[in-house]
Design brief:
The complex is a heterodimer of chains A (114) and B (111).
Chain A lengths: L2 E4 L4 E4 L4 E3 L1 E4 L5 E7 L5 E7 L5 E4 L2 E4 L9 E3 L8 E8 L9 E2 L3 E6 L1
Parallel strand pairs in A: 2-12
Antiparallel strand pairs in A: 1-4, 3-9, 5-6, 5-10, 7-8, 8-9, 10-11, 10-12
Chain B lengths: L3 E4 L2 E4 L4 E8 L5 E7 L6 E7 L2 E5 L6 E7 L2 E7 L7 E8 L6 E2 L3 E5 L1
The chains are: A mainly beta (114), B mainly beta (111).
Chain lengths: 114, 111
């Protein structure tokens, strides 16, 4: 079945540090891949997405590249800010009977200190 | 408008109460979802509606009853809940394989 494996957290960084959060997936078909962010007390917001191999999703300085050969979608940011502190979820969705349901990774808590 | 609106934001209910959570979207999306999220965990799928018909029920207890009155609205009726049902309930909508848009959630506490 479909699943997402996300690196364990929490991740604690100083402001302007480089961020990587690893994400790998298992899928029976050809999924779309997403990163969602959840700030305290809020719902999930889409951060970026990629729908086919070698696509790079980017938003607000965050990037992730869809790597079919390594079944990965790692999230990166060159210089984090305190305002990036949140929980980040890697997710996938597939065609067919799953009707676009999302399979989530466990989530990674990021804390950025000034 | 890329918004999914959920009401109420917070709800406290007793184990004998009946209450409803509401979700609305005006993006023309044909798939709508209910997810349950416990603290420090990812969202867990509960129900999927596709074209206003219940398409997936992830073995959710019958004390949770979903309803889709029209293509813009999704309700979740709650009855005889248990304290362990306390969680953040998230509604989402999507179109085809595009991204899902989430509401802000309803924080439910069962006492």
């Amino acid at each position: 079945g479909d699943s997402v494996t996300q690196m364990e957290g929490p991740v604690t960084l100083s402001e302007e540090a480089f961020l990587t959060i690893n994400c790998t997936y298992t899928a029976t078909g050809y999924p779309s891949l997403f990163w969602y962010v959840q700030y305290p007390g809020e719902g999930l917001q889409l951060l970026l997405k990629a729908t086919k191999a070698d696509d790079k999703g980017s938003n607000k300085g965050f990037e992730a590249t869809y790597r079919k050969e390594t079944t990965s979608f790692h999230l990166e940011k060159g210089s984090v800010q305190v305002s990036d502190s949140a929980v980040y979820f890697c997710a996938l969705s597939e065609r067919g009977s799953t009707l676009g349901r999302l399979y989530f990774g466990r989530g990674t808590q990021l804390t950025v200190w000034p | 408008d890329t918004e999914v609106t959920q009401t109420p934001k917070h709800l406290v209910m007793g184990m004998t109460n009946k209450k409803s959570l509401k979700c609305e979207q005006h993006m023309g999306h044909r798939a709508m979802y209910w997810y349950k999220q416990k603290a420090k965990k990812p969202p867990e799928l509960m129900f999927v509606y596709s074209y206003e018909k219940l398409s997936i029920n992830e073995s959710v207890p019958s004390r949770f009853s979903p309803e889709c009155p029209n293509s813009s609205l999704l309700n979740l009726h709650l009855h005889a809940l248990q304290p362990e049902d306390s969680a953040l309930y998230l509604c989402a909508s999507s179109q085809d394989l595009a991204e899902a848009f989430f509401g802000q959630g309803t924080r439910l506490t069962v006492v």
